[in-house]
Design a protein that fits this description.
The radius of gyration is 22 Å and the shape is globular. 35% of the residues lie in helices and 23% in strands. It has helices at residues 7-14, 17-25, 43-52, 62-70, 74-97, 104-117, 184-201, 208-217, and strands at residues 35-38, 57-60, 129-132, 154-157, 160-163, 166-169, 172-175, 228-232, 234-240, 255-264, 268-279, 282-285. Strands 9-8-10-11-12 form a five-stranded antiparallel sheet. It has a three-stranded antiparallel sheet with strand order 3-4-7, with helices on one face. Mean pLDDT is 88; it is low at 1-14. It contains eight helices and twelve strands. The protein folds into two domains: 7-60, no CATH class; 70-285, Alpha-Beta Complex (Creatine Amidinohydrolase), CATH 3.90.230.
């Protein structure tokens, strides 16, 4: 009998260079190619391709691909619309289940179940929910925990969804239970004002500097996470925020993920995120959902 093969063994086998070379060789036209365009070429594939196509010129196609992906076609917008609707359905399921005593991991399970029931079982990320502390520093978290959510805690619900490879998502902040901490309304208002200011700045011809300026004029400090980034086949350029992207231009046809994150020690944190399409007349929010 052959020896037992574990999961780690299968993983190593699947990434064996010989196996990968054989798979590449099956691609029509590869062996005859004299110029190969690459997008995000890793060192391993850089070593494999010359073995299959010799002599072959390796050309960096990343700039071409980035330019092609920068603006979205009508068909791509349809995919993003569907992904947005799935993300909204997941947010409704999480919102309905949110109550004191539930854990973040349980909310994550509800999210996974809902998007799978809609035919999209592959989540873009597990960073879909976290309770914000009402004591001490308030930090943005990505990993869910098993701690039961307390009555009155502010909880970020931030589901995303993939459809035909295209990603969209949104985020809202809710109160677990009925005992919202004092200052919640003011915090939510600050978050909404920041979001409205950022979206209003997403106009053709503007730059990342305009988003920075809109955020600062709304009375907000550096939020420690991106203000906006391109969206399509997952996260795409440009990245605006974290000190980057001030020179990035905003063009008609782009789709951006825009977010506002504000905190107040003793209250918690509030996140709002939306998927925004840039039209000639201005921004159009693809994700629509009620606020806190």
């Amino acid at each position: 009998m052959p020896p037992e093969i574990g999961r780690d063994d299968l993983y190593r086998m699947s990434w064996n260079p010989a196996n990968l070379a054989a798979d590449l060789a099956k691609t029509p036209g590869v062996r005859e190619a004299r110029r190969v365009g690459t997008d995000g070429l890793t060192p391993m594939f850089a070593g494999l391709i010359p073995q299959l196509v010799t002599p072959a010129e390796l050309v960096d196609a990343a700039p071409v691909m980035a330019s092609a992906r920068r603006t979205k076609t009508a068909e791509e917008i349809i995919c993003l619309d569907v992904a947005s609707a799935i993300a909204e359905a997941a947010l409704t399921a999480m919102d309905d289940a949110l109550a004191p005593g539930i854990t973040e991991r349980e909310l994550l399970g509800i999210y996974d179940e809902r998007i799978a029931s809609l035919g999209t079982p592959m989540p873009p990320s597990e960073s879909v929910c976290f309770a914000t502390p009402s004591r001490g520093p308030v930090r943005f978290r990505h990993l869910p925990s098993d701690r039961p959510i307390g009555d009155g805690e502010l909880v970020v619900l931030a589901p995303g969804a993939l459809y035909a490879g295209y990603e969209a998502g949104l985020a809202r902040t809710r109160v677990a239970g009925n005992a919202a901490p004092p200052g919640t309304v003011d915090l939510a208002s600050r978050c909404a004002r920041g979001m409205d200011a950022l979206i209003a700045a997403c106009r053709p011809g503007n730059t990342g500097a305009d988003l920075y300026r809109a955020w600062e004029n709304a009375g907000n400090p550096d939020l420690g996470i991106p203000l906006a980034h391109g969206l399509g086949l997952g996260a795409e350029p440009p990245l605006i925020g974290l000190g980057r992207g001030r020179d990035a231009t905003i063009d008609e046809g782009m789709v951006l993920s825009v977010q506002s994150w504000v905190v107040d020690e003793g209250v918690g944190g509030c996140l709002e995120r939306g998927t925004v399409r840039i039209e000639g007349s201005g921004p159009v929010v693809l994700t629509r959902y009620g606020r806190l």
